[in-house]
Predict the structure.
Amino acid sequence: MQLHILNSDELWFPPATDALEDGLLALGADLSTDRLLLAYRSGIFPWFDDDVPMWWCPDPRFVLYPDELKVSKSMKQVMKKGSFDFKMNTAFEKVIANCKAVEREGQDGTWITDVVEDAYTQMYKLGYAHSTEAWQDGELVGGLYGIRLGNIFFGESMFNHVSNASKFAFIKYVEQLKAEGVVLIDCQVYTEHLESLGARMIPRSEFLEILKRQIG
């Protein structure tokens, strides 16, 4: 296992098995669309630290199978009440801006830098990135964004201004993705919130095999 240093002149990633114990695989390079697409197809995702791209492929991997989505009784009541309107891809730039601005427990800042925001907005314009949104009385109150490749959705970040709004958007989107034939949602790393919705750990090797079969 070794930490690789990348540069922007070469479009490649080392094997995922080279990742350190914490999942960190490489540092450096850029967030060009071609590099991001190669990363996701390879099971790798970026986080930033002091403006330096950090590329990760942890083992195990935290994922959600759409068939295993858990909706609590309280959330079923929220869904029935019709408190929120569900929309997709109507406010991508607002969604990522809100994800960037939200304060998160245990974090000094956000990994969504201006560079990240610009890169994923470009991915949206090219049809790779998507947003799912919860609206209330004409206001965007929650949502998430991520990357869709083949039958895999790679979740990136979510935000919530009204209780249960992001959870509502997530549940509605998982149901939509399931109907479209998506077989796996990559949640990257563990969160108690997503575990409550049915996400679980699987071996990295299993995750990478699924990517090979499901991304055309």
